[in-house]
Write a structure and sequence with these properties.
This is Thioredoxin domain-containing protein. The protein has 10 helices and 6 strands, in the order ααβββααβαααααββα. It is α+β, with helices and mostly antiparallel strands and about 240 residues long. The chain has a 6-stranded mixed β-sheet with strand order 1-6-5-3-4-2. A hairpin with a 2-residue loop joins strand 5 and strand 6. Helix 1 packs antiparallel against helix 2.
């Protein structure tokens, strides 16, 4: 039990440090959002710590979600699609990107077995998440979406407006075009739509994933929640690949 309590303390520290990262004081809404996520983490850890009843393993949760045609990495005709709902200021999302994603890319995306789709779910208590998502999309206008995505996650401790502009410069983006895209909030409606859609299908935390096959324009498959290790994704992907 002490082990799980320690994990909860670490999670709380990470969430509160994200809140402290903001220039403005934490609002009541942000505070309530942090408390809600901490309660969800506590419930998850409690379930994981409890011994499982023999013969009563919980079935994997399935979900059907839309996969937009933009922000797709991999072959269009890949048999499996992995839709990721992410937040650029979420430390768990950054952990997934640093540890699990490179192996998934090497084993499944680069080999044509899977395509990877990103959808934005900036959480309310992450003050720089929306701006970071806009920055990545603005870089995409100059064919640097994935490169900017990598830079933002690798430098997550510095994603204020000035830092994002410096990453755009590092990638050789046209400064005027990038700055206009950001100033116009060009992609804010799409980001908000992504977030609203995620909540409408029951996704409220990041990172969350749906892995499966596309049927009638919808990815129908298994829901994976959290920065899970490679084996969790491998199991789901291989199971989907084995199906006719």
């Amino acid at each position: 039990m002490k082990f799980w309590s320690a994990i909860l303390v670490c999670a709380a520290s990470a969430l509160l440090s994200c809140a402290a990262y903001a220039d403005a004081p934490m609002t009541q809404q942000q505070g309530e959002a942090i408390l809600k996520e901490l309660r969800e983490i506590h419930q998850l850890l409690t379930r994981q710590a409890a011994p499982a009843a023999p013969g009563n393993a919980a079935p994997a949760r399935t979900l059907s979600v839309k996969a937009p045609a933009t922000h797709v990495l991999g072959k269009a005709n890949a048999p499996i699609t992995l839709v990721a709902f992410t937040d650029f200021q979420c430390p768990y999302c950054a952990r997934f990107e640093a540890t699990t994603f490179p192996e998934l890319k090497k084993k499944y995306i680069d080999t044509g077995k899977m395509r990877y789709v990103l959808r934005d779910v900036p959480l309310d208590f992450h003050p720089f998440a929306i701006n970071a998502a806009q920055s990545v999309r603005c870089a995409g206008d100059q064919n640097k979406y994935w490169e900017m995505k990598d830079l933002v996650f690798k430098n997550q401790s510095r994603i204020d407006t000035a830092a994002l502009a410096s990453y755009a410069q590092d990638l050789g983006l046209d400064a005027g075009q990038y700055q206009k895209c950001m100033a116009d909030n060009k992609y804010l409606p799409e980001i908000n739509a992504d977030s609203q859609y995620a909540h409408s299908v029951g996704i409220s935390g990041t990172p969350s994933f749906v892995v499966g096959r596309v049927v009638d324009g919808m990815v129908q498959g298994r829901l994976i929640v959290g920065a899970q290790g490679l084996s969790v994704f491998e199991h789901a992907i291989e199971e989907m690949l084995a199906k006719p």
